[in-house]
Amino acid sequence: MLFSKSAIYTIKEKPKDATIDSHELLIRGGFISQVSSGVYTYMPLGLKVIKKVSKIIEEEMDAKGAQQILMPAVQPAELWIESGRWNEYGKELLRFKDRNDRDFVVGPTHEEVVSDIVRRYVNSYKQLPINLYQIQTKFRDEIRPRFGLMRAKEFIMKDAYSFDTDPSLLDVSYEKMRDAYNRIFKRCGMNFRIVQADSGAIGGKDSEEFMVLSNVGEDEILVCDTCDYAANVEKATSMVNEKPSKEGHIEKIHTPFAKTIGEVSKFLNVEESELAKSLFFKNEKGEVFCFVILGSDTLNLTKAKNVVSSIELSALDNRELKSLGLIAGFLGPIGLDKNIRIIADTRLKDIDSAIVGANEENYHLKNVSFKKDVNAEFFDIRSAQEGEICSQCKKGKLKKYMGIEVGHIFKLGLKYSKFMNVVCLDKEGKQQYIYMGCYGIGVGRCAQACVEQNHDADGIIWPISIAPFEVEIIQLDKTEEISELCHLLYAQLKKSKIDCLFDDRDERAGVKFKDMDLIGIPISVIVGSKNFKNNEVEIRLRKTKEKKLCKIDECFNEIM
Ligand code: ATP
Ligand code: MG
Ligand code: MG
Ligand code: MG
């Protein structure tokens, strides 16, 4: 590409809303251009990077036997009503009506559409396993779009969906994707960790996230310094909560053990203003649970009357334990004393008095069960905290890092198959549900996370695998012989299929050097009269800023 004819528009000023380096650099380097909050145009440089990341993804997905398709951005509401997510998904789901008053959504993800495809075409176990994937534009009406491509409203995702006849085969499909993801992020030049994750609104059981380690990441992760245990903080709590209680009346609690409204709002993915009603939460089976946030004034338990089937109270310190005793006592008189489970750490010194207090006759409590004998589940919650002993190896200490979630893999199991009747005939000719997995990569987020990990004060340092160009030729003087040499070199590189940007602009050397560092192409060939006299050009590496003179006729080989 000739710079003089290109739509590469670099900017000197820092954009106002850019609070992290990678966002600033992608805008200033002319990679992306904002259209509206969270909505971007990929300019030529940006699109080249997106295409390179996509190509790596395609190669690794194809190598695992996945097949590429392209599903529509617009999806009919009927599919979302069938899966139950029309009601579940909340405001991130952009809904609209067509001219005939029919409801549609702009897809934030494609489980429904792909499930519909499979139930229509797959009718025998012989047609499985299958893995369908796409690289496609998603829309999520994020509460706070920010950080450029990292948290956009409209963004490109690679999403894959596997279909298998039984859970052990789903495990095989999942492992294949895990392996592909490892290879993809390594090839993109990133330092990442795989962590145990919560499965969020998509639902399902086992799930892991691929986290690019970075101080600007929005996810907290805990990593053991001795064994391979690593988990998202969200998961470190919910893992505990999913264990069935001994009493048996609480099967799955979604209590995040959160202490502030802000944390609960983040956990539930709803705005804080909406939280009053979200404190009462329905699970997949329709059971209603109540979140109890200790120390909060907004709690209005009378609202829970008649709808709540289980209440779980938890206390992590003595102060909380006291208010917990009070709350428990308050539940009887308003008729909410059925199926209450209280969990508290026996190491808390007030435990006995709190239990006695809450059990006193005047509270009228009938069916409250206290779990005084704290089990491993509860200690797990505490070891979610930095510095505590790891719950897996029981030796190492947990260390906290911030991570950018670039990929997420899930074993969905039968969640969608049951709701949407995704079935096929098994070997005995009987109908069976199909086991499903889903696997996502944020393509733009991945490219930007790479910038976050690879830059310096002057600009981006692209790894060659996803750099917009591999080589840049910088012409310093406009003499005929220099022009001729640059054009010759450019033609030669192009012929050898090397992706090359040729800065042939009528600009001062200083301007060209600044742009060179900002855009971050790995190798530059600097051609000027001074070195030309000695039959030489200069080769410079962006990463180390190392320069070296090289004879003109050896320069091509040097680059290769
Ligand atoms: P987050 O926790 O950051 O909101 P998510 O868990 O909602 O992400 P998934 O549903 O797991 O996202 O989607 C798969 C991948 O899509 C994510 O791992 C991430 O890389 C990417 N992604 C999700 N939301 C966005 C967004 N708003 N902008 C850019 N990429 C995104
Ligand atoms: Mg999200
Ligand atoms: Mg997430
Ligand atoms: Mg996720």
UniProtKB/TrEMBL annotation:
EC numbers, comma separated: 6.1.1.15
Cellular localization per UniProt: Cytoplasm
Keywords: Aminoacyl-tRNA synthetase, ATP-binding, Cytoplasm, Ligase, Nucleotide-binding, Protein biosynthesis
Gene Ontology BP annotations: prolyl-tRNA aminoacylation
Function: Catalyzes the attachment of proline to tRNA(Pro) in a two-step reaction: proline is first activated by ATP to form Pro-AMP and then transferred to the acceptor end of tRNA(Pro). As ProRS can inadvertently accommodate and process non-cognate amino acids such as alanine and cysteine, to avoid such errors it has two additional distinct editing activities against alanine. One activity is designated as 'pretransfer' editing and involves the tRNA(Pro)-independent hydrolysis of activated Ala-AMP.
UniProt protein name: Proline--tRNA ligase
Signal peptide span: none
Domain Aminoacyl-transfer RNA synthetases class-II family profile positions: 34-463
A GO CC term assigned to this protein in UniProt: cytosol
Family annotation (Gene3D superfamilies): Anticodon-binding domain, Bira Bifunctional Protein, Domain 2
Family membership noted in the UniProt record: Belongs to the class-II aminoacyl-tRNA synthetase family. ProS type 1 subfamily.
Quaternary structure and interacting proteins, as annotated: Homodimer.
Catalytically driven reaction(s): tRNA(Pro) + L-proline + ATP = L-prolyl-tRNA(Pro) + AMP + diphosphate
Domain comment, as recorded: Consists of three domains: the N-terminal catalytic domain, the editing domain and the C-terminal anticodon-binding domain.
Lineage: Bacteria, Pseudomonadati, Campylobacterota, Desulfurellia, Desulfurellales
Entry-linked PROSITE patterns: AA_TRNA_LIGASE_II (PS50862)
GO MF terms, alphabetically ordered: aminoacyl-tRNA deacylase activity; ATP binding; proline-tRNA ligase activity
Predominant subcellular localization, coarse grouping: cytoplasm
